[in-house]
Amino acid sequence: MLISSNNIIITLVFNSSAFKHDVTENDIETAMETTLFDELIVGYENKYLLIGFDTNTNLIEVMYNLVDEDIANIFHAMKCRNDVLRKLQERGDYADFN
After folding, report:
1. Domain boundaries, given as residue ranges, for the chain
2. Which residues contact 24 (CB under 8 A, 6 or more apart)?
3. DSSP state of 49
4. How far apart are CA 10 and CA 98, in angstroms?
5. What is the topology classification, in CATH, of domain 10-91?
6. pLDDT class of 17 with cuts at 50, 70, 90
7. Of 71, 67, 77, nearest to 28 (Cα)?
8. Closest CA to 79 of 93, 98, 59, 51
9. Across the chain, how many H-helices and E-strands are there?
10. pLDDT band, very low/low/confident/very high, at 70 (cuts 50, 70, 90)
11. Under 8 Å CB-to-CB from 18, ≥6 apart: which residues?
């Protein structure tokens, strides 16, 4: 799947583990198109956390790594956990998620 994010075309590849929590490919693609937060996870060189909306406008968290500059390997996706939102709020990011 090709997706445009910040005017960059990225190919998404999905590990089977990305669907472990009943999140669909469409949900993940939608989250990546409606990104609210996308950042390298502290302590990792190539592990990113993205938060966006799924196809039902629920917040989901997606974890991925970059295979190269135009391929993202999606390996985790689930309903956004409260502790993740709390950490973002503590940092001052997206304090209005409640």
Report:
1. 10-91
2. 54, 55
3. E
4. 31
5. Nuclear Transport Factor 2; Chain: A, (3.10.450)
6. very high
7. 77
8. 59
9. 2, 6
10. confident
11. 28, 62, 74, 75, 76, 77
Q: 68-91 burial by CB neighbour count: b if 16+ within 10 A, else e?
A: eeeebbbbbbbebeeebbeebeee
Amino acid found at 73:
N
The arrangement of strands across the sheet holding 71-79 comes to 2-5, 8-14, 71-79, 59-68, 48-53, 37-40
Which residue type is seen at 60?
Answer: I
**Contact residues for 95 (Cβ-Cβ < 8 A; gap 6+):** 89
Q: Which pair of structure tokens corresponds to residue 89?
A: 């709020």
| Per-residue confidence band for 85, with pLDDT thresholds at 50, 70 and 90 | confident
Output b/e per residue, 16-25; b: 16+ Cβ within 10 A.
Answer: eebbeeebee
